[in-house]
Design goal:
Blueprint (H helix, E strand, L loop, with lengths): L1 E2 L2 E2 L13 E5 L6 H8 L11 E2 L2 E2 L4 H7 E4 L11 H11 L4 H14 L15 H13 L5 E5 L7 H14 L4 E5 L3 H7 L2 E6 L2 E6 L1 H10 L9 H16 L7
């Protein structure tokens, strides 16, 4: 993926299985958000493609959008609407109708903890509640795939635990891809992890597989956290890039 002459993503490839939670981690500017925008058809890739539920994003963008729920880093909210009114609007836009309309509204209200602000204008609620409204709009149509960019941004510790539990419960029936700067969050809920830096995948796998990779490279700590793994792999890549080019 190119932004002018800047390469935002370079040969990035990964798969996510049904019922799996995949965590994307990397420094600022690593390419995580660009990857998510491509998967949601918000951006078209300069080269390559992706598939959601076996549908090519370039050939079937509208069908792909029906199958995904997307929470960008800044939730797409209309501040002059009440919470209930906004979610009704999103439900109609997502073609949720009939008895399912009422059922889905009640479900997201309860699942995302929105009862205290249900009748409040969005402009008057806290950042934490706005984030929860953003998550509710991503869930309103019961999508097969959830793509969440910093889903717990702005939440207090108790709210973070609640959203983590919700994400884990949703994974029983959905595929979830999320990015975050909070490594502990990925360590807690992700089944597999993709580490991205400078537009390329540094490594991917389960936490234990990544830890084993670091041990093989000589880091040696018996109990590696994701923070240890993250630092070790990025440092190793940085040192490798400094190696002199060999000539023959």
């Amino acid at each position: 993926m190119l932004y002018g002459s800047v390469v935002a993503l370079d040969h990035v490839s990964f798969q996510v299985q049904a019922g799996e939670i995949l965590g994307l981690v990397g420094p600022n500017g690593a390419g995580k958000t660009t990857a998510m925008r491509i998967l949601t058809t918000f951006l078209y890739p300069s080269a390559g493609t992706a598939k959601i539920d076996n549908l090519d994003i370039l050939e079937h963008p509208l069908e792909v959008r029906k199958r995904i729920g997307y929470l960008p880093e800044t939730a797409p909210l209309y501040l002059d609407m009440q919470v209930e009114e906004y979610l009704q609007f999103v439900a109609h836009a997502r073609d949720v109708s009939g008895k399912n309309f009422s059922n889905r509204l009640h479900w997201v209200r309860d699942a995302c903890g929105l009862k205290p602000v249900w009748k409040h204008p969005i402009s008057e609620i806290s950042k934490g509640f706005r984030q929860r409204v953003g998550l509710a709009q991503a869930l309103i149509h019961d999508p097969k795939v959830l793509i969440l960019d910093e889903p717990t941004s702005g939440l207090d510790p108790l709210q973070i635990i609640g959203i983590r539990d919700l994400i884990k419960s949703l994974a029983k029936k959905k595929t979830i891809i999320f990015s975050t700067h909070i490594l502990q969050e990925v360590e807690t809920i992700a089944d597999r992890i993709v580490i991205i830096n400078e537009g390329r995948i540094v490594s991917q796998g389960t936490l234990e597989a990544l830890a084993q990779e670091v041990r093989i490279k000589g880091e040696g700590k018996p109990d590696l956290t994701l923070e240890d793994i993250f630092i070790a792999l990025l440092t190793a890549k940085k040192e490798k890039s400094k190696e002199p080019i060999k000539t023959v």
